[in-house]
């Protein structure tokens, strides 16, 4: 396949660079997927300045015209889903259906926010003072810096960018240097549908160097990545009091009770733990299982792991693609080795596997006989790795599920409504799933977890307005007019 060429997009123009960044296909380490121009610090500054210049006109842009642009962007993403999805699968390692499906989700986000543009965003109140009324309106927060990770190369940039644009903000996007191709395709779509120059800009560069410039110059920062990096980002943003929205790490627990439908429990546990190679922030990394169902559940889950076909992302029979990049791949194997040293037993997987090409392939991994307090149940792996903790009852299951700093997503498998509701209320996670995988979210409702899994207003859905706008309360003495 041909090598994709990508440039930075600044103030409505594509810019090349003498410094290039290469991406390698994790399904085939002998294949270069793309070569990309790396932005200099000066170019990052120029992108931020371009967004600032474009802000007044875009924030005042006609509502219907803005909605039409976002709608057309969604339509074009839909039309190009096969092309973009293929590039995404080659660069990130998602299976072909996953790459296509993620591009469709990106299009749906633009369609959703096209509707948000024209939805009423203000409130009117009677005043306690005669002859007065009060208007609460929402205004764009300003120039938004968006920094996105490698695990969702088109969906994540899309829901951030679409929301920012819908509420009248301008954007500078820095995608992960591991997977910039799909974000560049998004930039091409926005250019084609007639977005005014400077409203959207894209730079490819090192995380800290480019990120610091963006944070310092932005009015608001939306960041998705690891919690450790998020703390560094937040400290930098505090110096300029830049508004922050951080979506960070997860160590998500699925509780399986004795009364669960075991077929469904195995299905949702396997899906949450291993689909998309376990590289979802809301993926299942802990299974908290009551003792009556434990042995049968573990046995059947190990068989499910063994049945998955791991291979090249573009092969029709592949169910789990490669790990997205070499640092993550090495980290996954080290995580398993550390868990074994701690006392965990490997019921299945834990090793690299071979396929038809030289790639970053890892077997879905099931760790058993672990304890809640062990590091393997406290630290995020972000790979196709899940561990099992055996507990006595629902009380202990709730305690185990909550006994972790991360508070992103959690789930329960049970046929008892009382148990489900008790867990839903007791869980400290920002999102709770009942008889469903901990991963698998919808774009019209809030996404996010409690600190340290998240910081600031939630992402997606109508909740996006809390971050991408600022509230203004106006008192009107109409009797004096």
Polypeptide structure, described:
With 481 residues, the chain is α/β, with parallel strands linked by helices. It folds into two domains: 4-248 and 452-474, 3-Layer(aba) Sandwich (Aldehyde Dehydrogenase, Chain A, domain 1), CATH 3.40.605; 252-434, Aldehyde Dehydrogenase, Chain A, domain 2 (3-Layer(aba) Sandwich), CATH 3.40.309. The chain is built from 14 helices and 21 strands. The chain has a seven-stranded mixed sheet, sandwiched between helices. Strands 10-9-8-11-12-20 form a six-stranded mixed sheet, with helices on both faces. Helix 2 packs across helix 6. The radius of gyration is 23 Å and the shape is globular. The mean pLDDT is 97.
Which secondary structure elements does this structure contain, and how are they paired or packed?
Elements: E1 4-6, E2 8-10, E3 13-15, E4 20-25, E5 28-37, H1 41-59, H2 63-79, H3 81-92, H4 96-118, E6 123-126, E7 132-140, E8 143-147, H5 155-166, E9 170-174, H6 181-192, E10 200-202, H7 207-217, E11 220-224, H8 227-240, E12 243-247, E13 252-256, H9 262-274, E14 284-290, H10 291-307, H11 326-342, E15 345-348, E16 365-370, E17 385-391, H12 394-402, E18 409-413, H13 417-426, E19 431-434, E20 454-455, H14 464-468, E21 469-477
Parallel strand pairs: 1-5, 8-9, 8-11, 9-10, 11-12, 13-14, 13-18, 14-17, 16-17, 18-19
Antiparallel strand pairs: 2-3, 4-5, 6-7, 7-21, 12-20, 15-16
Helix pairs in contact: 1-7, 2-4, 2-6, 3-4, 4-5, 7-8, 9-10
């Amino acid at each position: 396949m041909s090598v994709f060429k990508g440039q930075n997009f600044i103030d409505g123009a594509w810019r090349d660079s003498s410094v290039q960044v290469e991406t390698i296909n994790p399904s085939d380490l002998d294949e270069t997927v793309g070569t990309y121009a790396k932005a200099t610090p000066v170019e990052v500054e120029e992108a931020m300045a371009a967004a600032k210049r474009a802000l007044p006109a875009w924030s005042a842009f006609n509502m219907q015209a803005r909605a039409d642009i976002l709608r057309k962007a969604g339509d074009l993403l839909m039309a190009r889903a096969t092309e973009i999805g293929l590039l995404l699968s080659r660069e990130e390692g998602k299976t072909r259906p996953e790459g296509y499906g993620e591009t469709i989700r990106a299009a749906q986000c633009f369609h959703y926010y096209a509707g948000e543009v024209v939805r009423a965003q203000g409130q009117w109140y009677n005043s306690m003072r005669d002859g007065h009324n009060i208007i609460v309106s929402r205004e764009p927060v300003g120039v938004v810096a968006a920094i996105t990770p490698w695990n969702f190369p088109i969906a994540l940039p899309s829901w951030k960018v679409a929301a920012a644009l819908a509420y009248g903000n301008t954007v500078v996007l820095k995608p992960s240097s591991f997977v910039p191709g799909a974000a560049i395709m998004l930039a091409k779509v926005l250019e084609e549908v007639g977005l005014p120059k400077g409203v959207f800009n894209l730079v490819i560069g090192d995380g800290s160097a480019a990120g610091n410039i963006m944070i310092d110059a932005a009015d608001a920062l939306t960041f998705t990545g690891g919690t450790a990096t998020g703390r560094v980002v937040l400290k930098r943003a505090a110096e300029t009091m830049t508004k922050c929205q951080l979506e960070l790490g997860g160590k998500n627990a699925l509780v399986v009770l004795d009364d669960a439908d075991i077929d469904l429990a195995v299905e949702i546990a396997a899906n949450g733990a291993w689909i998309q190679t376990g590289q979802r922030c809301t993926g299942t990394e802990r299974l908290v299982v009551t003792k009556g169902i434990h042995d049968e559940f573990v046995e059947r889950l190990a068989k499910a792991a063994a049945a998955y076909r791991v291979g090249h992302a573009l092969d029709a029979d592949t169910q789990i693609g490669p790990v997205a990049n070499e640092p993550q791949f090495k980290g996954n194997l080290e995580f398993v080795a550390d868990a074994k040293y701690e006392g965990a037993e490997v019921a299945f997987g834990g090793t690299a596997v071979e396929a038809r090409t030289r790639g970053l392939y890892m077997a879905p991994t099931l760790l058993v006989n672990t304890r809640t307090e062990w590091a393997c149940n406290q630290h995020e792996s972000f790979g196709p790795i899940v561990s099992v903790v055996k507990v006595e009852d629902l009380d202990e299951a709730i305690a185990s599920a909550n006994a972790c700093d991360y508070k992103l997503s959690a789930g329960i498998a049970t046929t008892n409504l009382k148990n489900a509701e008790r867990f839903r209320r007791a869980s400290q996670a920002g999102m709770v799933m009942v008889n469903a995988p901990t991963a698998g979210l919808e774009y019209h409702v809030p996404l996010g977890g409690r600190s340290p899994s998240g910081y600031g207003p939630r992402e997606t859905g109508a909740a996006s307005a809390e971050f991408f706008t600022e509230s203004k309360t106006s008192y009107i003495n109409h009797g004096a007019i």
